[in-house]
Design a protein that fits this description.
About 30% of the residues lie in helices and about 30% in strands. The protein has about 200 residues and is of the alpha+beta class.
Length: about 200
Amino acid sequence: MIDMAKTTLRFAEIDDANELLQIYAPYVEQTAITFEYDVPTAAEFSKRIKNTKEKYPYIVAEIDGKIIGYAYAGTFKSRAAYDWAVETSIYVAKDDRGLGTGTLLYAALEAILKLQGITNVNACITYADQEDEHLTHGSVDFHKKHDYRLVGRFKKCGYKFDTWYDMIWMEKFISKHVVPMPAIKSIKEIEDEAERTLESLS
């Protein structure tokens, strides 16, 4: 069992792509948690990291230099009116789940998004009434534990492993909605404060 007291948080780098893929690949190949059919190449994954980091935090958790999980935010919708909302994603290495890594990553992610001025964090989650070999209710339970609430459900909209799955949206407010609303700060504008936040949570 890993010692969570030794967990370090930092921002992901492009060179982390191969290690992050080792965590992500089993989710693609063995679960319906992601609707990707094929594991992306390292080059494609590197591009995803780069694109995310241009606007939002992309955080990894590691112990003794080994990455055990990662979380990031992405655009919810591209129209300007949606600037204060993001979609979150989190993946923890299979052997390191249930030990608090996800909670630590989400705490850091939300803290930094709050510094940027984000109000709404949204999670898009695969769901089925009955658990099966490719999907449990673990992700829903995790988000409920972290004060996300169910706000929408799309029926039988994803097909993987010869099974039709639903998609649900869960949402959490992390900042106040005010009028007028201050403009979102870029990740570069809050870089120093964000680094201090990661250090304080590590």
